[in-house]
Structure formats: C-alpha cells, structure tokens
Amino acid sequence: MRFCRQFLFAAAAWLVTNTAVAVDLEKGKEINGTCAACHGDQGAGGKKGEYPRLAGQRAAYLERQLKSFRARTRINIPMFPYTQERELSDEDIKDVSAYLAGIELSNRMPTYTGKEDALTRLLMAEKVMIIPRAEGDLANGEAIYQKKCAACHGKSGKGRGMFPVLVGQYTSYLKRQADLYLKGDRPHDEEGVVGVLNTLKEQDIQDILAYLTSIQEPSE
Predict the structure, then answer these.
(1) Residue 128 class from Cβ within 10 Å (0-12 exposed, 13-18 middle, 19+ buried)?
(2) Could you tell me if 170 and 49 are in contact, meaning their C-beta atoms sit under 8 angstroms apart?
(3) pLDDT tens digits, one per residue of 131-143
(4) Which residues contact 132 (CB under 8 A, 6 or more apart)?
(5) Which of 8, 55, 96, 111 suits a disulfide with 43, CB 3.0-4.6 Å?
C-alpha cells in the first residue's frame, strides 16, 4: 500500500510538471497589437536593431524577460508600464510569448508571379528577415561560440530552454546587450552580473557576432 501511495504521488507530480499549459494564440495575437507599435506586426523588430526581433524567439525566454521587466530585475523603463499586472497578466504573458514564438520569418526573398500589386509585393518583402553580414574573424568566432556559448544557445544559435535564439537577431541589438552585460547593467541570466562574456575580449565578441550572421539559413 505504501508503494502504491508513493507511485501515485510520483505520477501526480510528473503530470503537474510535464503537462503543458494551454495557450490562447488568438488572444496572444490581439495582445501583440500593442507590441507591434515598436516590434512590428510580424515581430521583426526595428530595421536598425533599435527594437529586437521577437518572432521565432523562444517562448520561455520571452516570458522570463517580460516578468523581469515587471519586477525591474531587468531595467527597461519603456517596457515597465506594459508589463504590470493590470496591463499584462501572467496568462497574457504566456499567450503573447507563445504567439510570437510561433511566427516564422523567411530569410529567402519571395518569388513574385508578376500578378501582385505594389502593396502586396511590399508586404511580402517585409516578411523577409535577413541580417547583414557583420565583420569579424569567422573562424575565431565559431571556435569561441561553440566552446563558450553553444551549451546554452545551441550549436546553431537557435536557443535552448529559457536561453534565447541568437541567430537572426540584429547584430546591433546583440552588441548593445553584450555591452550592458559587461557593464553590469543587465544581469546575466544564469550567473548574476558576471558571465561568460566577461571572460572574452572585445574582438572575440565581435567575431562571435560575425559568426552568427554567417550561419543564417541560406537566403538564395
């Protein structure tokens, strides 16, 4: 009998831990209407990286950052009022994060049939996300990235768990966040104010950023 109770308890704990919480993608899309003012309808962010790409980002990472803005553990004054409970509940955060994570932005230029009007062509082109190549030593960037960064961000830069996708993100945005980490203005997600970036030279970081722009999916 004792074994049965232990088994049932363990099974219940597994179900609580592993059962996915349902999300409302339609509600997430509606909430994204507010985010779109800066990040765009498709979550592509700012053309110059002033606002990060959110489309395709890992939902767990988006959730964590929105809650960090709310708690001011990550300081972002413009984001703070939008993340307050009266504006964005935990359920809302989960819904909009799941919606944004599900947006796929092609990095291949569209094939036009010749029947599209100018507006349609423009809208098709706006859904393409190609990050310009950054300058740097690709071999050095790859070596450091695979040794220092891949364990959390994945070998192909597509993130893992709560760690964000890096490939396909604006280089200027990534550089700005790296600088914030190094100055201690943004705490490292896992290691407080000191993390892997603090062990690297400035040129090493630039080489990593260059490498990330080189491993985007083919844009032919």
Answers:
(1) middle
(2) yes
(3) 999 999 999 999 9
(4) 171, 213
(5) 55
